[in-house]
Amino acid sequence: MYAQEVKSTGKGVKSLDEMDPQERAFQERIDADIKIEPKEWMPDGYRKTLIRQISQHAHSEIVGQLPEGNWITRAPTLDRKAILLAKVQDEAGHGLYLYCAAETLGVSRDQMTEDLLSGKAKYSSIFNYPTLTWADIGAIGWLVDGAAIMNQVPIQRCSFGPYSRAMIRVCKEESFHQRQGYDIMIKLANGTNAQKEMAQDALNRWWHPSLMMFGPPDDQSVHSAQSMAWKIKMNTNDELRQKFVDETVPQAEYLGLTVPDPDLKWNEERGHYDFGELDWNEFYEVIKGNGPCNRERLEARQRAWTDGAWFREGLVAHAEKRASRVAAE
Ligand code: 3HC
Questions:
Q1: I want to staple 145 with a disulfide (CB 3.0 to 4.6 A). Which of 96, 117, 178, 199 is the partner?
Q2: Atom 33 of ligand 1 has which residue's CA nearest to it?
């Protein structure tokens, strides 16, 4: 079955024969595409992997508001400002659904926040790059939300009910985000020479970091084999990266822009684009905290957490007061 197939490529994934009866029954439900719900028994590793992935995903949505929020006051027209504002608000909503999905697994919002602020929990590498021009907002919508969709559409079919259901709404909204980004790129690419240059410059800076969003190459991915056996992930990092390149290169051609990769070439035999090696040192430096904006992003989240303390305390005090009034009635 699925677990055994993955074992042939995966590291450390148990076959059905190696599992105890409870674990085997669990894996068989996953293999049969039956959703797992929060109160049901699950292996410890399954719970931990989900908490790690969902909370990191939630943090990415929340931190992802920062580079774009930076442009809300400087959007070039009222329409662009309203659209960007709506998009950034959507990202906040995605973060909240995802925190709720993770909470069903027994981790608290405070714990997840603490893990983000202490650097224990990651968030997507892509949000550690700066947004230098308005074209970056177009490139983020087109490429970053495009990569997010590529990764998240398959997760709609993942084995954990609350995560898969959250992904359905998230993906609908991400599609709107991707279109708004591409729309900005169309306008710039068909504008003045200076605007076209700005669009090209944004593509030059965001292309490689966007490809890195899919995670390290499959032979360096620690979690893929087990996560795929559990259907927490539905595809490998390299599979999704290739799919993204294949779909996005024609979009760049339509814009009249050049993908910044001299090794990019259609391979007739494979039916896919070949593309150049990514700078994985850069990726590992960014996820270790040494990217261009890591410090700034975490400082912003720390400030929001500290400044919001009075509000959280007020909410708890109100809830406690209400509970004691209800108990007295
Ligand atoms: N950024 C930061 N860390 C990354 C990463 C990235 N782009 N890609 C991989 N990593 C980390 C992993 O978290 C893991 O570290 P950990 O053990 O400390 O958690 C390590 O690198 C090894 O990578 P693996 O391939 O073994 O890790 P995964 O199996 O978890 O795969 C993933 C990584 C593909 C990102 C997977 O976790 C995933 O599909 N996550 C859900 C989607 C998600 O989080 N997307 C964030 C994108 S941004 C977004 O959605 C916002 C939108 O508004 C654009």
A1: 178
A2: 215
Q: Whose CA is nearest to atom 21 of ligand 1?
A: 215
Question: Do 84 and 137 contact (CB within 8 A), yes or no?
Answer: yes
pLDDT of amino acid 10: 55
Residue 241 · residue 213 · CB < 8 Å: no
Question: What single-letter DSSP state applies at residue 232?
Answer: S
Structure tokens at 213: 């969003």
Average pLDDT over residues 143-162: 98
Cα–Cα distance measured from residue 305 to residue 285, given in angstroms and rounded to the nearest whole number = 26
In angstroms, the CA 175 to CA 170 distance is 9
Residues 206/136, Cβ–Cβ less than 8 Å: yes
Mean pLDDT value of segment 165-176: 95
82: which strand partners? none
Identity of residue 98: L
Q: Which mutation among 53, 231, 239, 298 tests ligand 1's pocket best, with the greatest number of atoms within 8 A of CB?
A: 53
pLDDT surpasses 60 at 5 = no
Ligand 1 center from residue 223 Cα (angstroms): 10
Query: Could you tell me the two tokens for 3?
Result: 């677990």
Q: Is 56 in the pocket of ligand 1 (CB under 6 A)?
A: yes
SS3 assignment, position 36? strand
Binding site membership of 59 for ligand 1 (Cβ less than 6 Å): no
Q: Which of 67, 61, 144 is nearest to 101 (CA)?
A: 61
Please state the φ and ψ torsions of residue 265, each to the nearest 5 degrees. -160, 140
Separation of CA 329 and ligand 1 centre (Å)? 49
Interior/surface letters 260-283, b for 16+ CB within 10 angstroms, e for the rest: bbeebeeeeeeeebebeebeeeeb
Torsion of CA 67, 73, 75, 76, to 10 degrees: -150
